[in-house]
Amino acid sequence: MIWTYLLQGIGLGFAAAIQPGPFQTYVITQTLSRGWRHTLPAALAPLVSDGPIIAIAMLVLSQLPPWFQQILYLAGGLFILYLAFNAGRAWRDFDRRTEATAPPPRQSVFRAALMNALSPGPYIYWSLVTGPILLAGWRESPLNGIGFLASFYTAIVSCLAVIILVFGTAQRFGPRVNRSLLGISAIALAGFGLYQLWLGIAF
Asked: Are the beta carbons of 109 and 48 closer than 8 angstroms?
């Protein structure tokens, strides 16, 4: 029944959104440094990046040699370190007027989508978890597959928007708290980047 796939989509979308990872840390970093109004469009990033990810995961990744995952880890690690460097600069040059110099919403969505696309997590997630459910639903009825995708992305986008709004309220506590949280986010991004590089090297 379609309700089964709708419930699975909502549950898995919620889990994917709140699971700690480099993409979530990047969204939080952007919220703290640029404000929730400029970061909120980034909640739509999965809608931009996941189409090719789903296609690759379901049609290609299962047939590729294992070393391809190593390339994803290395590329993602380097990009995350680049984001950590930018977050560190934002911490160093922190100013309450930072929000006024934020990039336009389209650029925010593009950066977040690139961040998501370079992370191996979505590829693995769609290959091992959501991919088989989508295929099973589609084989039963295309409506089941469409319903699963719609509920999954409704849940993940909504949860990301809530995360951005929650961390956006941190601005009420003053610039010192914002700057401290921004520094913590930069360190966390650096940690994720180094960890992914280590996974790529040790793969």
From this structure: yes
